[in-house]
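Moderator note: this is an archived Q&A kept for reference. The question asked for a predicted structure of one protein chain; the sequence and the answer are reproduced below.
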Amino acid sequence: MEREVTRRVYQIMLLGCLIACTALFVKEVNSSVITFANADKVAHFLIFFGLAFVLHHAFRLPVWLHLLMLAGYGAGIEVLQSMVPHRQASLYDFYADCLGALSYFAGYFVWRKYVRKRTA
């Protein structure tokens, strides 16, 4: 029962994250705030790393399906950005999205295989 409640909390968090991220991805960005090259790629990577974490805890699905859903969301965001006048789509942003999600799952499996076994 407790796991089901926790899963529901993550599902609600996922919905909130998706709404917030979608709004941020179409918002006009003040480029004077960006302090280093490719900051947008780093942002995409970190956002999708976080989304993978929340999605993984929200739903018990095969990893390939999590990755497919996140890649679909990333592709959708890029299509949406191509339709917004002050934003532009980027294949490299999509790559950063996918790499962020892949990195979360790679890190999770390394942690599960090596670190968690040592502490148990």
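Archived answer notes: The two ends are 24 Å apart (CA to CA).
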